[in-house]
Amino acid sequence: MKIASFNVRRFGVKKCTDPKVSLIINKIVSRYDIIVILEVFDAKEKAAKKLVEQLNSGDGPRYNYVLSKPLGRNDYKEQYLFVFRDFVLIPIHTTPKDSVQEIDELYDVYLTVKEKWDTEKIIFLGDFNADGAYVSNKKMKTIRLRKDPDLHWLIDDDVDTTAVKTTDFSYDRIVVHNSILKHIVPNSAKPFNFQDEYKLPDEEVLAVSDHYPVEVEICLAKKQNLKKKMKTEK
């Protein structure tokens, strides 16, 4: 199973109806069993339906989707689009200036989900804005989601998740509980550089997004202790 989060800058009908852009997005999404798309503006649900129709037009696996209501603290509101093949996944796109507070408050969500659904099989993923001027190394150490030894940040602090060549920030992250960690395929958590993969010029990349998807592969069938394997490979 391969899971990803992708901040597709201002995803809506315009991108789904642009032949070049939609083809790239479809190629990216079809790599995954579950993907959370951030920065969605699709009040009438036309873009979500169009994307899934495009994904299901071929002979491959069938996809479905869930689109959240518009979410946000103030006037700025966006939606989360879950696209998945037939865990608890918690998406996040923090407000840059409030990143430290919002990432820390995810810990309260974690505790609530654990109690309400009686599960620890939880994955947080999305655009945490967890780097640069938004979250310093000093402030990172104060965040409860970071301090809990049962929670593991799979995208390291020095990994660039941005698609802009003049930036080098680890904004997008995937965080999993211990119960999930043992099923993570070693070295599978990383950004997907679709520019290199599809040999795209800069302008086509930025027409899609200024972020790369962050992805991870999960193998629920394996019985070996992958956590030990990951430690031995370091």
From TrEMBL:
GO molecular function: deoxyribonuclease I activity; DNA binding
Keyword terms: Endonuclease, Hydrolase, Nuclease
Example of a GO cellular component annotation carried by this entry: nucleus
Single Gene Ontology BP annotation: DNA catabolic process
Domain Endonuclease/exonuclease/phosphatase: residue ranges: 4-211
SUPFAM superfamilies reported in the protein's UniProt record: DNase I-like
Superkingdom of this protein's organism: Eukaryota
Keyword Nuclease: yes
UniProt keyword annotation of Secreted present: no
InterPro entries referenced in this protein's UniProt entry, alphabetically: DNase_I, Endo/exonu/phosph_ase_sf, Endo/exonuclease/phosphatase
Family designation: Belongs to the DNase I family.
Protein name per the record: Endonuclease/exonuclease/phosphatase domain-containing protein
Origin species: Hymenochirus boettgeri
